[in-house]
Amino acid sequence: MIENQWYAILPSKAVKVNQIVGVKRLNLDLAIFRNDKGEIGCVVDQCTHRGAALSKGKVKGECIKCPFHGLEFNEKGQCAFIPANGRMSEADLSRYNVKHYKVSENNGILYLWYGDLDKITGEPPFFNKDVDASYVYSEIEDHWNSHYSRCIENQLDVVHLPFVHHNTIGRGNKTLVNGPKVEFVPGGIITSANNEVDVGQNPKTAENCVYQSYIFKPSLSERMDESHQ
Ligand code: FES
After folding, report:
1. Which of 36, 95, 131, 203 is packed most tightly, with the most Cβ within 10 A?
2. At 9, is the secondary structure helix, strand, or coil?
3. What is the model's pTM?
């Protein structure tokens, strides 16, 4: 994985108040919970005491409670209560803590910061900053039995469209590929995908291509506007 990035891991609605969801994401077993205030917590799905799956436990107040001996961990993974020590015992937040991950909830999607917590750079990117209220979107969960880098590569591969998807997104027999134009920008890349029907013309060079789709960050769209002028 590329470290120090936000990754979309679940739809927000998949984690309801006072519920825990156990999922494997980014090759990590995670217990994601929503406390009684609606806040999201995400910890490794393995209790520091005897290794029980925290995802099989319960949400209690602001904490996730282990099903085995009842240790309670807050959204920072700190052990806030040990039942065996008695209800009057004082929490020692320096011990028994589980690893936790920063999760941000934006536009109905849960994003996990994969990397060093002190390297978090703002909120996850999203592509709706430039669009008006008539714009609608939805999320879909689709499991591909493939390494994630192959999935990204596939999304960028416009050459296969008229062959594999000739009667859907690749219709029109646009086998000639202009560019592609690719620009690296802070936080991502901008790339063009403007295939054409081959009538004997030469493909456009990257310099002569234009971007044809929306970009997710205002700063990027501003750059796009500039490139159109
Ligand atoms: S294994 Fe979790 S409290 Fe003991």
Report:
1. 203
2. strand
3. 0.77
